[in-house]
Amino acid sequence: MKKRGSFTLDSLPVLLYVLPVILVAFSAFFSGTETAVSSVNRIRMKNMAANGDSRAKKVLHVSDDYDRTISSILIGNNIVNIASASVGTVIFTYWFGAAGSVISTAVMTLVVLIFGEVLPKAIAKENAEKFALAVVNTLEILIKLFTPLSFLLMQIKRLVARNSGESMPSVTEGELRVLIEESENEGVLEEQESDLVRSALDFDDTTVEEILTPRVDVSALDIEDDVASIQEFFFHTGYSRIPVYEENIDHILGILHCKDFFEAQAAGDTMNLRSMLRKVLYVPPQMHISELLKKMQQTKAQMAVVVDSYGGTLGIVTLEDIIEELVGEIWDESDEEEIRLMQISKHCWRVAGVLAVVDFLDEIDYHCLEKERDELPVSFAAWALDIFKHIPEVGEHFCWHDLQMTVLSVYEQRIRLMEVKQLDPPKTEEEEDS
Predict the structure, then answer these.
(1) Cα(353)–Cα(434) distance, rounded to whole angstroms?
(2) Rounded (5°) CA angle 191-197-201
(3) Which residues form the domain of 195?
(4) Buried/exposed 27-61: b ≥16 CB within 10 Å, e otherwise
């Protein structure tokens, strides 16, 4: 009887030569399944499940129970990989004697890496939904089969996680912004859609102070004004709601609706202005506009008065102001267009004092650290006052990074117009090449 190494020729059945192929195929199954479950589009699966696809419901179920699913996959993958290495060692030792273990390690590592890991994962990544739907029934059986071992692994994982502190969220807000930008670059989102999503992300961080109409720009009525004056006021301003004060604007009594006033006038009722006033919603300047929007929806208010820590009036905020933070400027027939930003040259702009600094940086696509953006004042006028510590004269300027801000116009202690110039603008590709 012919011998090779320490084995007889009859000691290796044909099945032993087929077994590595079967085990590598199982390794490919587990590797592809791991990638498919991790990469599957949950929104697409939810849509398919809502349309009655039972396999999509199963995919969502195993995806939701991710720890148990991934534990079962890894257990199965390690079992077949170790088994394939062991069988390969037996075969190659039979063929090549003592050198067989070294040859087996090299060959089986290469085979498992290519056919059991790289190729199936690449295919599953490109066809995650199809792959997940195809294997989910088999995967459910294997999850039940490996339940005792996966339960033990999950307990160990919980113990380690408990001692390692809080887990990080799967997607941070910064990563979501990058994802939106990439989606826009790839054509998945239109520019208008991506701008709307970015506005929604910024919405919860915006405070009332950032969008209010300041006290000096508020149009209001005195409770002692006569009917003719009020009627002329409504015709002249075109507003549908006007704050009404007593003695001064720090003591606002209520909001007068144009509809209520003219209905009472048409009906010939006694013009008792106090009885027409609707309740005022007072809010602090630090309140977030998302919270104010909910409050205005609950109280059915269209306007809120912003008060400072002394109870004085800082300004007003309307529902339209809040909505404009999401969808951009909304114009009606009574609005007068105000140019807040004008480009003078390639790296020079004129800005209104009330223009938000972060809006300007976004408009010119100026990149800076997120922490620096958060520390910037609300408007250019507020920025200048914070720097100068006095009402500046025309021509005074200050710098921030490579931007120089110069005061162009001051009227009644208000900074009306400023110039922003980029002193060291980034070079274009053509300039760098030259």
Answers:
(1) 39
(2) 140
(3) 173-203
(4) bbbbbbbbbbbbbbeeeebeebbeeeeebbebbbe
Q: What is the pLDDT of residues 211-221, one digit of tens each?
A: 888 888 888 89
H helix count then E strand count, the chain: 20, 14
Flag whether pLDDT at 377 surpasses 80.
yes
Per the CB < 8 A criterion, the answer to whether 418 and 350 are in contact is yes
Task: Categorize the per-residue pLDDT at 306 as very low, low, confident or very high, splitting at 50, 70 and 90.
Answer: very high
Tokens of 335: 């609005």
Number of domains in the chain: 4
Residues 186 and 72 grouped into a single domain: no
Give Cα separations from 145 to 28, 30, 151 (angstroms): 19, 14, 11
Sort strands 213-214 and 313-318 into parallel, antiparallel or unpaired. antiparallel
pLDDT averaged over every residue in the chain = 82
Closest CA to 213 of 230, 197, 237: 237
* pLDDT of amino acid 336: 54
Q: Is 333 part of any domain?
A: no
pLDDT at 169: 56
Closest-CA residue to 75 (of 152, 158, 159) = 152
- The bridge status of strand 348-352 relative to strand 414-422 is antiparallel
Q: Strand runs (DSSP E) across 247-396, as ranges? A: 248-257, 281-283, 303-307, 313-318, 341-345, 348-352
- DSSP string for 354-365: TSBHHHHHHHTT
What torsion, rounded to 10 degrees, do the Cα atoms 49, 53, 58, 59 define?
A: -70
Mark whether 192 and 212 lie in a shared domain: no
C-alpha closest to that of 153 among 70, 31, 83: 70
Determine if the pTM surpasses 0.70. Answer: no
Angstrom distance (rounded) from CA 95 to CA 89: 10
